[in-house]
Request: fold
Amino acid sequence: DTGVSQDPRHKITKRGQNVTFRCDPISEHNRLYWYRQTLGQGPEFLTYFQNEAQLEKSRLLSDRFSAERPKGSFSTLEIQRTEQGDSAMYLCASSTGTGGRGYGYTFGSGTRLTVV
Amino acid sequence: GDSVTQMEGPVTLSEEAFLTINCTYTATGYPSLFWYVQYPGEGLQLLLKATKADDKGSNKGFEATYRKETTSFHLEKGSVQVSDSAVYFCALSPPGGNQGGKLIFGQGTELSVKP
Reply:
């Protein structure tokens, strides 16, 4: 297993366009998390899945954001009608679900979004 | 709500100097505490963790002790190397089984070690 993979690594889009990112977690991990990291800040929690169920969404996740994990494996994060404030690094992480509490997290390298 | 505050960077040290990066937290109950490191161009990696008061996490010469009385989890290393240059993040995971294991991060502290 090569860890958590994110695609693409970089995305430049025009304001108002839709973008979709993909995350492939470690295969035996049943929990998957999305975070957003802006320049000079720590990652901020967006949402997480246990298997295919989305169990929590942050208030940061506006109506323009949607995440799916249709078969409990890979996940997608879509941003509709992008705004310049969406420019950030989007991080995916996965973990085993036993008890959670941040144990056994593996982060991907992230997708850097630039909205122009 | 729960939060983490780290000392501001960048921190610039000479090789073999002593390192302290301060981290304090606000949380109800007993969170788990973590230090993550992000090397240039790489993803976040877990450096060390502590799950209860007075626990000491350690890895690669780095240490941090969970201090409930001062709500702190300061990162220390006795002798830094150039290869330790990175951004360091303090984080907590709220207690409670329904929190899902999400992490709350500080803003990060950039460390630069000069030869």
